C-alpha cells in the first residue's frame, strides 16, 4: 500500500483547552509524519465545503457555528494507513462513550450542546482526505 495523507483538525474546543500539542504528540508518537501545520480561523465557505456531506442534518448548523467559534489547528499527516490509524487514535464520534485511551475518550464529553464537541476531525477515506486537504491547504 502506498503512503497515505490525512487531514487532521484540532477543533475549537481542543485549541481553547490547550490540547493541540497533546493531540499532535499522540499522532507523532504513533509514528506518523507531520507534513503541514497551521492555526487558522476557518471561514463559513471552507466549513460548508468541508462538511458538505452533512448539509441538512439537524446538527449541521450548530456544527458550522461551533467550528467558527474559535481558531482550529489544521495538519496533514502522512504514513501507511494513516487515515484509519488516526481515526482509531481519535475514537468514536460521541466523546462520552469513546473508548478511554483515545483522544475523544480521554479528553471529551457531552457539554450539553447540540453538536458533539469532540476535539478532532480526521478524514475518513483517501478521496475525502485529498478533497479536505484542498480546502484547508489550498
Ligand atoms: P466524525 O467526526 O467522527 O467523522 P461525522 O463525520 O459523522 O463524525 O460528523 C461530523 C461531526 O458532526 C462530528 O465530529 C460531530 C458532529 N456530529 C455528528 N453526528 C452528530 C449527532 N448525531 N449529534 C450531534 N453532533 C453530531
Ligand atoms: Mg466524518
Automatic annotation (TrEMBL):
It comes from the Bacteria. Its EC number is 2.7.4.6. Its main location: cytoplasm. PROSITE patterns: NDPK, NDPK_LIKE. Keywords: ATP-binding, Cytoplasm, Kinase, Magnesium, Metal-binding, Nucleotide metabolism, Nucleotide-binding, Phosphoprotein, Transferase. InterPro entries: NDK-like_dom (IPR034907), NDK-like_dom_sf (IPR036850), Nucleoside_diP_kinase (IPR001564), Nucleoside_diP_kinase_AS (IPR023005). It catalyses: a 2'-deoxyribonucleoside 5'-diphosphate + ATP = a 2'-deoxyribonucleoside 5'-triphosphate + ADP; a ribonucleoside 5'-diphosphate + ATP = a ribonucleoside 5'-triphosphate + ADP. Major role in the synthesis of nucleoside triphosphates other than ATP. The ATP gamma phosphate is transferred to the NDP beta phosphate via a ping-pong mechanism, using a phosphorylated active-site intermediate. This is Nucleoside diphosphate kinase. It comes from Arthrobacter stackebrandtii. The gene is ndk.
